[in-house]
Amino acid sequence: MYNLLITLLLIDCVLITIAVLMQPSKTNDAMSALTGGADDLFAKQKPRGFEAFMQKTTLILGIIFFALSLGLVWVSSH
């Protein structure tokens, strides 16, 4: 059981890393300092399409990571 949880946790870690790296960048460039940040008006939109899917995927993988970590602690303590 311990080895199964470790394996699932490692797979989940790799998937979380891939999901985070695939998310689009949200950083502002130096031009926003010159324009006064006018681009921030449209930056508060709800994510749609691929970005929303990746956010949900990352959240689900994070919950799975937390559950597997707790399960691993419980198994290793007994």
From TrEMBL:
Membrane topology: Multi-pass membrane protein
Domain of life the protein comes from: Bacteria
Residue ranges crossing the lipid bilayer per the database entry: 6-22, 58-77
Family per similarity comment: Belongs to the SecG family.
Pfam family, one: SecG
InterPro entries to which the protein is assigned, alphabetical: SecG
PANTHER family: PROTEIN-EXPORT MEMBRANE PROTEIN SECG (PTHR34182:SF1)
Subcellular compartments: Cell membrane
Presence of keyword Nucleotidyltransferase: no
Described purpose of this protein according to its UniProt entry: Involved in protein export. Participates in an early event of protein translocation.
Keyword vocabulary terms for this entry: Cell membrane, Membrane, Protein transport, Translocation, Transmembrane, Transmembrane helix, Transport
Signal peptide: none
The name this protein goes by in its record: Protein-export membrane protein SecG
